């Protein structure tokens, strides 16, 4: 029932990570700004592309119309010079009346061609023999043009008649497009005013503000040079079939090939497009600035509210790890600062309470370890007294003296070993004395070898560790059937990235019984009736002092004998266990 109510409450009041929500909101805001800018750019590009493509189609259509007119002019000129019989007769006639009639007939044909054209086109024929000039002016405006420029253009055209191509010529502030062909002494030419020709290209698709410049392939400008200078447009940098868009300067340049000799360049001032782009820019910048302000506000909110709460939470979580707490960053919010100070005081009180409990626990452990050590000492004292007693009965005075000397040194070490930790070098020397005592007792009965790395002599270990296991080995492996061998190895090893002290004691006896070895490796108590108390005491002392960092492994060798391998932390300075011990 309670668990169901708890689930209902959890569903009703769901927990949210505010920092994560803040990050997601910031990312969403940035994404919206990027999408807005991207859509604006894409819209501008799309509108510009469709507008450009449409204008190119219209311009190409108009240019094609001009090209068709120019092609028609070429055909008409070729037809008149090559196939008009009346023109041939006019070139050779001598009768004045007949000449006038022939001139009227030729003029009629030229006028017909001028009227049929979509553009204002003028035709004229000049017969060098007789200096006869026939124009095809069909309208008053065409005749006015002929009167103003016809003769001069004819002179210019005759000079370039052999070129057989369209020519540009400036005359009295106007630019004329001229085409001339020659057949013997007959010249026929056609001309159009360039400005009138360009006005025919007028189209609403180009907008309200535009102009068309006509240039040669070598970028010689024949029309629109002043406007190109005003716009600072260099057509040398714009090749045929190229579209150049300068949104910053506000114009679009489209250059298209016209005839085989000239190009048409359309320059459009994009006022409407610029206004649209300005609007998009202002809208985009407004959204961007608003987004930036929101991001700044979110950052301010994070620094002044979220970050202190987050730090407060992290410090609370840290209590489970190192039991430390800091209040330095929480005073930006008064309420949070007060709560932080109260929590800091509570943590301080808990620390003091834990220190008191820890000190009492250490004191209890020391009392227990002292008690365990005292359990070992009487056991060995009785063994030593028993050995001396047996020697005295056998009258071995020298052996008694040697034994008494080693026992005295041995007991001196025992009496001063009140510390929890001793130097490994001293412990080894103490073990050697113990082995000497046993050698006196079992003269010729066993042999011992001790191998120690020089680098571990200053290490610290609990007292009477080695001596206890050596004593246990002699007790259980000693036999008079063969020489007993005892091997002691002490060295430093690296396990899981940490240095540890490894102590090995091996013999060549009968080895452990299977059930005893299994219990020892499981750290089960095997002492009964006062037996095996020394080994169990060492295991308990190591557990009290090092906890899980100390390990003991009991094993039987493959050939013969038993062994024990101990691992404990490699401690070599005073700070490691708060023990002030001076070695050597």
UniProtKB/TrEMBL annotation:
<dbReference type="Pfam" id="PF02518">
    <property type="entry name" value="HATPase_c"/>
</dbReference>
<keyword id="KW-0175">Coiled coil</keyword>
<feature type="domain" description="Signal transduction histidine kinase internal region">
    <location>
        <begin position="368"/>
        <end position="443"/>
    </location>
</feature>
<dbReference type="GO" id="GO:0000155">
    <property type="term" value="F:phosphorelay sensor kinase activity"/>
</dbReference>
<keyword id="KW-1133">Transmembrane helix</keyword>
<feature type="transmembrane region" description="Helical">
    <location>
        <begin position="21"/>
        <end position="45"/>
    </location>
</feature>
<dbReference type="GO" id="GO:0016020">
    <property type="term" value="C:membrane"/>
</dbReference>
<keyword id="KW-0418">Kinase</keyword>
<dbReference type="InterPro" id="IPR036890">
    <property type="entry name" value="HATPase_C_sf"/>
</dbReference>
<keyword id="KW-0808">Transferase</keyword>
<feature type="domain" description="Histidine kinase/HSP90-like ATPase">
    <location>
        <begin position="465"/>
        <end position="569"/>
    </location>
</feature>
<dbReference type="Pfam" id="PF06580">
    <property type="entry name" value="His_kinase"/>
</dbReference>
<dbReference type="InterPro" id="IPR050640">
    <property type="entry name" value="Bact_2-comp_sensor_kinase"/>
</dbReference>
<feature type="coiled-coil region">
    <location>
        <begin position="336"/>
        <end position="375"/>
    </location>
</feature>
<keyword id="KW-0812">Transmembrane</keyword>
<dbReference type="InterPro" id="IPR010559">
    <property type="entry name" value="Sig_transdc_His_kin_internal"/>
</dbReference>
<protein>
    <submittedName>
        <fullName>Putative sensor-like histidine kinase</fullName>
        <ecNumber>2.7.13.3</ecNumber>
    </submittedName>
</protein>
<keyword id="KW-0472">Membrane</keyword>
<dbReference type="InterPro" id="IPR003594">
    <property type="entry name" value="HATPase_dom"/>
</dbReference>
<feature type="transmembrane region" description="Helical">
    <location>
        <begin position="281"/>
        <end position="302"/>
    </location>
</feature>
